[in-house]
Amino acid sequence: MRDVLSADGLRTIEAASGADALAIAAEALPDVILLDLGLPDMNGVDVVRALKAHERTARIPVLALTAMRTEDDDGWLRAAGFSACIEKPIDVRGFPARVRSHATPAPT
User: Coil, helix or strand for 64?
Assistant: First the structure.
C-alpha cells in the first residue's frame, strides 16, 4: 500500500503498532490514517477510539483496512469512529484516489 501511494505522489508515514500509530498521529497530524483492524499490540477499533478521544487527532479521517469484510461492517465501523472501510486486497488502480477522497488537510 505504501508503494502504491508513494508512486501516486502521496507521502506516507508508517507505524508498526497501535501505540506507535497514536504517538505518530499526534505528532505528524496526517491528512488521513489507514488503520488495519488487526495490530500486534492493540485492536484497530481501540486505536481509532483513542484517536477520536483526543482533541489533537479527533478530526483526522481514519480508514479501516480489513481482509474480512461483511455487509454489516460499515455501520459498526462508522460507530467506532472510522470514516470508511477499504477491503484487502486493495484495487491498486483506484486505491490512491480513494485515499485522497477521504483526506482532509490538517489545520496549520
Answer: strand
